[in-house]
Amino acid sequence: MNTQLNTKNKQKENIMKPFNLEEAVSLIYQLAVLKKDAKALGAKYDITKIGHICGVLTMNDQIEIVIKFHDEMRQFTKEEFYSQVKLLDQQAY
User: Fold this and answer.
1) pTM for the model
2) Is the sign of the CA dihedral 11, 39, 46, 36 positive or negative?
């Protein structure tokens, strides 16, 4: 049984479908910013704008991603996640 999740080179699946558990769990511990707060490539982010994906939950039979920001915790469906959130590369911050 494969116990490691592959997050490298993972193609985005159809965003109109809800997250499946493996896809949602593979995002945990990654850093993200809201697209409205996104900066140009190479620019430094204010630490209060960076969130980390800290969990998944099930609401209304749909898996959602939970992101902890400096001053709030937010949850996103797959469609909301891909339209409102940008994942950060480790070199970006």
Assistant:
1) 0.77
2) negative
The amino acid occupying position 74 is R
CA distance 39 to 36: 9
| Dist. CA 59–CA 80, nearest whole Å | 14
The residue count of the chain comes to 93
d(CA 28, CA 43): 24
Give residue-wise pLDDT tens across range 55-71. Answer: 999 988 899 999 999 99
Q: At which residue do the structure tokens 């990654």 appear?
A: 30
| Alpha-carbon gap, residue 6 to 31, rounded angstroms | 16
Q: Maximum distance among all alpha carbons in the chain?
A: 41
